[in-house]
TrEMBL record:
Family designation: Belongs to the DP1 family.
Keywords from the UniProt entry: Membrane, Receptor, Transmembrane, Transmembrane helix
Residue ranges of the TM segments: 49-73, 94-113, 119-139
Gene Ontology annotations for the cellular component aspect, listed alphabetically: membrane
Membrane topology classification: Multi-pass membrane protein
Protein name: Receptor expression-enhancing protein
Organism of provenance: Homarus americanus
Localization terms from the record: Membrane
Principal place of residence: membrane
């Protein structure tokens, strides 16, 4: 019969711990002994980047891989930022998600045309990586400060008015739906 394990006794698994465990398991294969040498690690890293790039150009499922790259790491970092006490990291990742959302909306309208270009998924992946890179010239900050923020400030009153109307309409629809559901339940 299994014994109860308290929270203090549970080992907290982190994503990096799991990646380290997988990497150690893969590298324990004797066929990869040459790759384990430190002098070969740049070849492994850059070779992996080249293979990923080629796959994003020619591979099946490149859209999924590109979207996973643009989502998984930023989502993980966003959760870590929410759990930290610093405000700067929250702002950094909120900026990323605003740019990501704008890009996703724009991409919705142009995706049908752009996805036919052979380097589209590679270019999109590079764009998303640029947007979350931890550098001073990262794409999210550049796009937000040069495009989104000025446009928002210029049209803030119109946006607030439109959002107020939309909120009022949503509330009306929600009230009508609630009333209809209540009446339907009352009649049954």
């Amino acid at each position: 019969m299994p014994t109860a394990v308290t929270k203090d006794q549970q080992e907290e698994f982190k994503i990096l711990d799991i990646v380290d465990w997988m990497l150690k398991d893969i590298l324990s294969d004797a066929r990869l002994s040459e790759l384990k040498k430190e002098k070969n690690w740049p070849y492994v890293k850059y070779g992996g980047i080249v293979l990923l790039s080629l796959y994003l150009v020619f591979g099946y499922g490149a859209q999924l891989i590109c979207n996973v790259i643009g989502f998984i790491y930023p989502a993980y970092c966003s959760i870590k930022a929410l759990e930290s006490l610093k405000k700067e990291d929250d702002t950094r990742w909120l900026t990323y998600w605003v740019v990501f959302a704008l890009f996703s909306v724009c991409e919705f309208f142009s995706d049908l045309l752009l996805s036919w270009f052979p380097f589209y998924w590679l270019a999109k992946c590079m764009f998303l990586v640029w947007c979350f890179l931890p550098v001073s010239w990262n794409g999210s900050d550049v796009i937000y400060n040069r495009v989104i923020r000025p446009a928002f400030i210029k049209h803030e009153k119109e946006i607030d008015t439109a959002m107020s109307k939309v909120t009022d309409k949503i509330n009306e629809v929600a009230d009508a739906a609630t009333k209809a559901a209540f009446d339907a339940a009352k009649n049954d």
